[in-house]
C-alpha cells in the first residue's frame, strides 16, 4: 500500500480526498487478503482527570482512531474455496457462568462468517445455544466464546457444535469438555480501591507484606496515566 501521506493538517469542517495504491506482490497465492489504514491525531490530547486521593491522582488520555479495512481478492472470487474446521473446545468459568471457547480455523481462501449452535448436556439437563461467528481471515484462527445457561454450570458437559457457512457447508464437532479445577483464593486489600487475588494456601506471610507495601508505594508515586483507545471502524 502506497501513496498516503504520513501526516496531514485539516481545519475545522474541512475535507480532503486521498488516493492510494494497493499492489499485490508477485506470486501471491489466490485468496482474499485484508489491508488497513488507521488515522489518529498526531498530537496527544490533554490528560483528563478521573480520580484523586490524598497523595495520588489518576488521569486518562483518550485517543480517537478511525480504521478502514480494504478487502483484496487475488484470483476469481467465484473460485475461492471455503473451509472451516474446529480445532478444539475448552470449558471455563466467568464468575457463575460456564463458557465454551471454540477454536475455529479458516483453512479456505476467503473471509468466512458462520451461524451455528452448541447443543450441550449434563445429566438430565440439556440446552441449545445459537451463536454467530464474525469474520475469520484465511489461514487464521479465532476463539469463539459461547456462554452456557445456568443449568449447565457443571464441571463437565457433553456438547455437539455445528457451524453453517460458505455455500451451504456444515462443520460439526462432538465431545465432552471439563473446566479446570480452581484452587481456593483470597483477596488482599493493598490500598484504596486496590485488591490482589492470591492462592489461599502456600503464600508465605512475608509475601503479603511486600504486596501491601508495594501497593502503597504506587499510590504515593504521583499521577498514573492510562492510555485508552476508542476505535471507530469502517469497512470499505
Q: What is the strand and helix layout of this fold?
A:
Layout lengths: L30 E9 L8 E5 L4 E18 L9 E11 L2 E10 L5 E11 L2 E12 L4 E7 L8 E10 L3 E10 L6 E7 L2 E6 L5 H15 L3 E13 L1
Parallel strand pairs: 3-13
Antiparallel strand pairs: 1-3, 2-3, 4-5, 5-8, 6-7, 6-9, 9-10, 11-12
Could you please describe the fold and organization of this structure?
It is a single chain. By secondary structure, the protein is mainly beta. It folds into two domains: 134 residues, no CATH class; 98 residues, Immunoglobulins (Immunoglobulin-like, Sandwich), CATH 2.60.40.10. Helices cover 6% and strands 55% of the residues. Strands 1, 2, 3 and 13 form a four-stranded mixed beta sheet that branches. The protein has a four-stranded antiparallel beta sheet with strand order 7-6-9-10, with no helix packed on it. Strand 6 and strand 7 form a beta hairpin. The protein is flat. The two termini are 15 Å apart. 11% of the residues are buried.
Provide a concise account of the structure shown.
By secondary structure, the chain is mainly β. It is 6% helix and 55% strand.
Q: Calculate Rg over CA atoms.
A: 25 Å
- Any idea how many domains? 2
Span between N and C termini? Answer: 15 Å
Number of strands: 13
